[in-house]
Design a protein that fits this description.
Number of strands of chain A: 28
Helix content of chain B: 25-40%
Oligomer: heterodimer
Helix content of chain A: under 10%
Radius of gyration of chain A: 21 Å
Number of strands of chain B: 4
Largest sheet of chain A: 5 strands, mixed
Number of helices of chain A: 2
Distance between the termini of chain A: 79 Å
Number of helices of chain B: 1
Structural class of chain A: mainly beta
Strand content of chain B: 25-35%
Strand content of chain A: 35-45%
Order of helices and strands of chain A: HEEEEEEEEEEEEEEHEEEEEEEEEEEEEE
Structural class of chain B: alpha+beta
Amino acid sequence: MSGPARLQPCVAALLAIVAASPARSADYALPACLAGEPVPLVVEIGESTPRHALLRGGISPPLQIVDADTLLPLWSASMLPPSSQQFGAMHAQFAGSLLPLDLDGDGIHDRIYAGDLAGRLWRFDLHHGQTAQQWATGGVFADLSRGALRGFIAPADVSLRAEGAGSPAWFNIAIGTARIGAAPVANRFYVLRDRFPFETWTQQRFDQWRPLREANLVLLPRLGAVLTQPAPDGYFIETGAADFLSPALTISGRATLALADLSSLSGASCLVAAVVSSIDLATGAQTTTAPDDGAIATQLAVEMRAGDSFALLRTGSHAACMVGNVHIPSCDVDLSPRRTWWRREDAD
Amino acid sequence: MLVLVALIALAGGAAAQDVLFARQLATSRAQQQRAFALAELGLRAGMAQLSAAMPVADSGTLHPRAAPPDSLRVVLRPGAARVPAGYSAGRFVARDHEIESEATSARNARSVLVQGVTRLEAAGPGAR
């Protein structure tokens, strides 16, 4: 290996660390419990048999997939080599905002939505069986950074929305920001529309894509405000100093979200005070979260572990939505089977 | 006179055969209806199974009634899964199932009913 070639990995790592968002706030390090845990997924990288793996974010490389059993690296992505694939805009770190999706129900993940600490949402389409160098195509789907010290820590909540039969389907991507410095920032909760939910894009298609920006979205000035105009690319809600550390959960088109008060974060247990709220993804309108002494409550104060998802506790065909030991009725879900068709097979 | 008696006897025999045949037909019909009712019971049992978190895929041969010839078998067949509209992808999948209910009763009466259902299944983090 020549001198410059030997230096290249070091330069890449240095650039990644320098460009990574936490470094923009010199006296602030992301609390360990907000760094995110590896996300399980099933992949076919360079082989035709599915393999259980873990997707994790980091500094160098910003994204990596390792074998779930052996922890051997299978794939990585960064701005510069050495990594399996390079993406020119990947200059910021990824934490826990990682969501792999199986779009066709075959048990193998087809898509990754990943939010970085610079406030950009990435989309990757995965090509089964390809080598690590060609396994993913991807790029920035939405660039919502605007220079503020806020980024994505919690994974996106993606739900399919179709306006009746025959009309085109799209993904509602609900994701909130969190401060990545010590000081509170004006956070946002975005509801973005991905109008190409089941298309697999080539790298050329990704390169041609113009990332969504806040200028493309409709602004709702506070939680509870309602859309009064069409929002073809989506909308965003200004949520003040509250940070989004946990993914939202969508049930019947309503997203339940937890707005955390990061100043209440306790180091050891990682418990944080939060307010749970629920919105209709189509309009942004706030919906009720729980009956409260006969009155209708739109918000519910809870204490939760930072980064934890809403849990579903199943009893028969009903699943109760829980945060710790607190029941959140707005995200309860009915799992009963529904009849679709019927036929008689015996000759009469 | 002998001819008349013979005619009456023939007519009586034919009537008796008709009655016997009609009775056999009615019994067969009743057994078929019994098998059909049992098969419907099997579909309901299959729906109840699919309401549980871990449904039993094959019930084996069941004898739901005291009458020995009555038997029932319910088989659940999972089908395709897809991203459900309006629910968090990755946390839920919508999966189609077929419930096949085969019931038998006396006199080889047999009824097979198949019910298609779709079920929302919780998956991913936080599902217990």
